[in-house]
Amino acid sequence: MVTAIPPSAPTGRAARERQTSRGEGAANGKGPRQPLGLEAYEQICRGIITLAYQPGAILDEKQLMADLQLGRTPIREAILRLAGEGWLETQPNRGAIVPPITLQKARAVFEAMRVLELGVANLALAQKIDEQLAAMHRANGEVVAAIAANDILRLVDANHGFHLAYADCARNEFLYRACLEVRNQAKRLSYLSYANEIDRNRSLHGHYREVIAEHEAIIAALESRDGERLRGIITSHINAFQARIVSYMSS
User: d(Cα 89, Cα 236) in Å, to the nearest integer?
Assistant: First the structure.
């Protein structure tokens, strides 16, 4: 049996997609409302990221309808989209399954992240990236605000936004899409990293401070066009993330 997810405001791409209207909201004078399929997508995705839907859990369609108070069609639309993005695995006669988090899969995510984001560094230095840098500054400010509010899901989303803005610095749509797919897969790992005291020698808030500082250093290296410095920071940033996840999963 799955767990109902408390509603909260959507973030990132979902927040932009909220601009799509639904007649009922406009008719009630409350402004546009998002499509029900998107609402279902957001709530299920939120549950997967926060581990309210545990790895390996089977998400029964009827139970999701009851928990989310939504009809069969939006639930099915959400499941199809989530499966297409790798958030769920669908199997005949078994429903939708939340993919397990394994060390092997986590290592594969970090290997791909390292290759892709170093590739971004190589291309970004030759691009005009004022808009992307501004987006990175805003996203890191959102990281700071999320930490101050002790809102882990908001922190995960802000961190995600920072790294997508960084990926956009390459000005290459194919590389951006690849980074997006890997970063989507890393969201559950980010939640684990940001929600748990993992390193006995460094507090969780010490980890937060280091993340903020590393983000600032990435921006500074891009602004100064210092490729060697940028590649070094990207590598150490990913390595630190991986070390926390391996330590958590091995404990």
Answer: 32
Q: How many angstroms separate the CA atoms of 225 and 228, rounded?
A: 9
The number of CA neighbours under 13 Å toward the Cβ of 241 is 26
Task: Say if 79 falls within a structural domain.
Answer: yes
Would you say how long the chain is, in residues? 251
Alpha-carbon Rg for the chain in angstroms: 19
pTM for the complete prediction?
A: 0.82
Q: Report yes or no: 185 and 169 within 8 Å, Cβ to Cβ.
A: no
Q: From residue 69, how far is each of 5, 30, 35, 88 by CA, in Å?
A: 11, 20, 14, 20
Closest to 91 (Cα-Cα) out of 42, 64, 56: 56
> Closest by alpha carbon to 37, among 82, 99, 86?
82
Q: Which domain holds residue 185?
A: 103-250
Question: Do 82 and 27 fall into the same domain?
Answer: yes
Measure the CA–CA gap between 110 and 230, rounded to whole angstroms.
18
CB 183 within 8 A of CB 163: yes
What burial class does residue 112 get, using C-beta atoms within 10 Å of its C-beta: 0-12 exposed, 13-18 middle, 19+ buried?
A: middle
Domain's final residue, options 97, 114, 147: 97
Encode pLDDT of 27-67 as tens digits.
Answer: 344 556 678 999 999 999 999 999 999 999 999 889 899 99
Q: In what order do the strands lie in the sheet with 89-91?
A: 58-59, 95-97, 89-91
Tell me if 7 is assigned to some domain.
no
What pLDDT does 201 receive? 84
- Number of neighbouring beta carbons within 10 Å of residue 139: 22
Give the pair of three-digit tokens for residue 177: 């899409």
CA distance 65 to 60: 9
